[in-house]
Fold:
Amino acid sequence: MTQIKIFDTTLRDGEQSPGVNLNQLEKLELAKQLERFGIDVMEAGFPASSQGDFDAVKKIAETVKNVSVTGLARAVKSDIDACWKALKNAQDPRLHVFIATSPIHMEYKLQKTPEEVIETAVEMVKYGKQFFDHVEWSAEDASRTDLDFLAKIVEKVIDAGATVINLPDTVGYTMPREYGAMFRYMKENVPNIDKADLSCHCHDDLGMALANSLAAVENGATQVEGTINGIGERAGNASLEELAVALKIRNDYYPYHTNLVLNEIKRTSDMVSKFTGMTIPGNKAVVGRNAFAHESGIHQDGVLKNAETYEIITPELVGVHSNNLVLGKHSGRHAFTDKIKQLGYQLSEDKLKEAFKAFKLLTDRKKEVTDDDLFAILTDIQTDTSNVKRYMLEDFKVQYGSSEKPSATVTLTTPDDEKVKDTKTGQGSVEALYNTLDELIKEETHLTDFQLNSIGQGRDALAEVHVSLTVDGETVSGRGSAQDVLEAAVQAYLNGVNRAIYQKKAV
Ligand code: KIV
Ligand code: ZN
Structure:
């Protein structure tokens, strides 16, 4: 069976999703989880785009060991230099350099003739090869490129040293048969094509990203690029968990295998959703809450008689365990430590103490602590930016009655270690809290989005709030989880403001 290499771009194309901005600690945690998931190549970011991106790519490159780490570069020397600086300590570094090849991009965006584009592409691949053994070259907007021109430039960049040729459907325009035919055309018309891996990269504007990726594989692509939960620019990228499960379940049809560890899907997907604030729709294939729920009586009857009547994927295959009750009030430190090791976390002694304290606090309020709860505690602790001065919640009270205007009193410690307190009203409890916070927070803050979800099920499930904010003009997201909805709302708001402060310090 042919191996299909998996190139994950959650941390680059995925991070380009509107409203998403991950900090370095979150990127690092995600990178470790992606490594556990078994991807082959990780696009950790776009080092030339900002100091924050550069630092994150460098840190990831120095941390993960079993994955080839890459960074994106435009076809300019300074971008390639930034990539090399960020990636040179990686176990297996690679460069990903791109230039647009479609008539519309060449004429209007690049303002270059086709011959100039070929010249630049070849020159930049050669430049990159001075540093990197592996160079992936992408023809941006390949699916709207003239096939003969594409074949010509591909041949030249392979001669220049490119080891992977990626042909993206940048604007999500192509159809499966058409996209597959483009790969076949390259296989049949580029004389040196066997010297490079062919890679596909699909966007989902017309809902075709996964179908197009599979069509590419059927026609010679040996690498698929995509993201977890399909996040990415506009409508997103091909969803890697869907690809992985499709290849596994339809192994009779597709003679290919990947190195992915399928039972890490749920955790990887949850982490991406939590960090990005992009909630997974209930009906999303493979990872949606309803993906394994059988609602109609006829289906339930069938499943009870033989699960395979209506169930083609078992929840266990993708790491969903219905019985994930793990620890409770009487669980000690030993059981707790064992469990977090099982979950794949490695914590320093200090973080372990902190996590155990948070776990014990939770068991005071919640009888059954599930994997989902532990996951929330552990990811919060691993991505905590508490070494940076920040706003901290000391106390809050909300007065609410259906016939009176809600008011909120909040006490905070500011980044300058001052205790401040105020009371304000609002149309609802959350607005009253946020109006009070705005009074106490020095930065100019506006709320642009608010989402509330529960972690797990049941009356005592933790509440999780995601907010989008602008803080002094910068767009940030924030999240908070707590037993109480209002507390989660306050924590999310403060988390967003503190992230803006952290980001400013990191630049
Ligand atoms: O969609 C695209 O074309 C890209 C390239 C930069 C590879 O993301
Ligand atoms: Zn893309």
Notes: The two ends are 47 Å apart (CA to CA). The CA atoms of residues 390 and 498 lie 6 Å apart. The domain at 392-506 is CATH 3.30.160.270 (Double Stranded RNA Binding Domain).
